[in-house]
Amino acid sequence: MRIEELDTPAVVVDWDVMQDNIRSLADYCRKHGIGLRPHTKTHKIPAIAKMQVQAGSKGITVAKVGEAEVMAAAGLDDILIAYPVLGLSKLDRLAKLARERKITVGVDSMEAAEGISEAAKRAACRISILIEFDMGMHRCGLQSPEALVNMARRVEELPGLQFAGIMFYPGHIWDLPPDQFPMLLEVSQKIGEICEKLRQHGLDCEVVSGGSTPTAYNSHLVRRLTEIRAGTYVFYDMNEVGVQACRLSQCALKVLVTVISNAVAGKAMIDGGSKTFSGDRLISGDKTGFGYVTEHPEIKFVSMSEEHGHLELSPSSYKPRVGERLSIIPNHVCACVNMHDQIYYHRKGIIEGMWTVEGRGKVR
Amino acid sequence: MRIEELDTPAVVVDWDVMQDNIRSLADYCRKHGIGLRPHTKTHKIPAIAKMQVQAGSKGITVAKVGEAEVMAAAGLDDILIAYPVLGLSKLDRLAKLARERKITVGVDSMEAAEGISEAAKRAACRISILIEFDMGMHRCGLQSPEALVNMARRVEELPGLQFAGIMFYPGHIWDLPPDQFPMLLEVSQKIGEICEKLRQHGLDCEVVSGGSTPTAYNSHLVRRLTEIRAGTYVFYDMNEVGVQACRLSQCALKVLVTVISNAVAGKAMIDGGSKTFSGDRLISGDKTGFGYVTEHPEIKFVSMSEEHGHLELSPSSYKPRVGERLSIIPNHVCACVNMHDQIYYHRKGIIEGMWTVEGRGKVR
After folding, report:
1. Cross-chain Cβ contact B323/A115 below 8 Å
2. Which single residue of A23, A93, B208, B219 has CA 20 to 30 Å from A153?
3. Do the beta carbons of residue B206 and residue B235 sit within 8 Å?
4. Does residue A311 contact residue A324 with C-beta atoms inside 8 Å?
């Protein structure tokens, strides 16, 4: 079947572009001796996680216990849940997983660490702990090296736990023009300070887990970093284009849509809105629009209802007919994939298969 | 099981509040002799659609063929797909449905009408057509009564189709303080004009389908309206509170979350972000925030990552501990429900069951 024959809206991945993205970051990490632990929240598809591992990833990252279960059931191992696990039900599921797989959890509170310790004790297993440090995003993470070291010492004493190192998420560092390199130097210094303080207390900081897609190819500038958790790089999207983390041609995922109405002058409606693309706005570049219309980049995707995408035609002489098909690169690919039960993949326009988004909806 | 024992994040509906919402609009419609055809996109759950029908709805509305299939499979009949159906695959599924159920489709182009006619011919069935008119939202719909009448005459001649009337979506009319009542008068006049012109051409306008939740209880002010398609009223949400379409106590659906981090001063993170609530912003009231924290309304839900909700604590002396639970009313309940595979329902705090969101993900 050719792409043109797919019913719309449909999410389609260009296999070759995706493979290039996977290979390219794996090669970079190999060259610089940095581990790659891709965040699989972007695709939530075990088959893609396996490709990432085969290309050289040391393990994977997930956000939720339910996502870890899906990945483990498909045979993946060495899973970092980069998210505090709280609540009896989730903790018991976590411990059950940890009896069969190498599981690490990122936390920033003793409440979370103590719950995990109790669960590990009940299940007679060991769970590794990374303590999250706030490098400047101000979302989660301990606020000072001293606080982190204090917590590490307490974690090390809890039964069933093993303090394995630190993690941070540099979500505040989007792009890195040369005048912002000091930001990375600051991160390096902070890591050095934490590792030194841990050493003084006899604690080894085996893992320093950082990274995100926009900063991925600058990871070698951060000293002592042992692994990165980039996720979006597998598909890329308009947010990444906006911060020049990739070129348009590296965007592997598009949403195929059909024009369903052109009754209102100057507008066209497509059969995908926020329930197809997610409602995520563009947070980089010119911060306008809900996606890039590849066939007619001059057209603006100006707003969305749940099932309607609103295209503004005025900058163009082009007026699409009802039934015409367009393909659109989403703003935020992780959120877009999460709206769908299945996504297709193609090579040179021929649909070669479909993946079930197995981790979708695993909110717990 | 009590609500407090549910693992989070979890979406929970207060059964009694929902029943009141269903009954109240059904009573209003009965009193004024207006048909109610609730838009089931809000819940996508056949069991709730059946309650709406039992309360007096004449049929239901859906947005996609896939949603119609789910509802029909559960036994629902008289289904309006308020959305142009395009593409061979969807058209054949539509015609198959129409052999077993009363199906009506809303369209605004001859391309859509012709495709439906062809499919109806192939399947030897009849499909009713509503023609959409643009009452001022400028999304879809014909632009003049003349254009609508011309299209109705052409539709009436197509095999397999039956012109049944008109539909409109007054999405531009949010709230109705007395000085905006002229807007409804304008709608009434336009309907009158269309019906008169249709009559002159020997066409009956049996159905005049309009309405939305914010305008629902003013529907009697629109003359000749035969039915409304309100959806959100079943649960209500903060957008509806913002336009005073409901009181807070009428919001039947809340998202239970757990505080997962309070490491950053002045902030708390909860275990639900855009993949739990949807990324939809508040588009009414003060247009800020991502949900209403019922236990601490003074706290602002200021932003979201995919799996983190960011609470701003500064207006409060309250500092939640890690593990504490909160319940939050979402901005846009239709988009929120659409993120979940299951939602729970309770009566007076006791969980009585769970519904599968069967229509979720039926994007085609």
Report:
1. yes
2. A93
3. no
4. no
Closest residue, chain B, to A341 (C-alpha): B361
**CATH 2.40.37.20 boundaries in chain B:** 3-9+241-356
Which chain A residues are Cβ-neighbours of B323 within 8 angstroms? Answer: 86-87, 111, 115
CATH number of the structural domain A3-9+241-356: 2.40.37.20
- Would you state the torsion angle of the CA atoms of residues B161, B162, B164, B167, taken in this order, to the nearest 10 degrees? 10
B147–chain A nearest CA distance, Å: 10
> What is chain A's length?
364
Q: What six digits make up the tokens of A199? A: 């050493």
Instruction: Please judge whether A111 and B321 are an interchain contact, meaning their C-beta atoms are less than 8 angstroms apart.
Output: yes
Residues of A in contact with B10 (CB under 8 A): 364
pTM over cut 0.95: yes
Q: Given its phi and psi angles, is residue A132 left (phi above 0), alpha (psi -120 to 50 degrees) or beta?
A: beta
Task: State which H helix or E strand residue A293 sits in.
Answer: strand A291-293
**Which pLDDT tens digit goes with each residue over A242-274?**
999 999 999 999 999 999 999 999 999 999 999
Does A363 contact B276 at a Cβ distance shorter than 8 Å? yes
What's the topology of domain B16-235? TIM Barrel (3.20.20)
Q: List, for residues A120-135, the tens digit of each pLDDT value.
A: 999 999 999 999 999 9
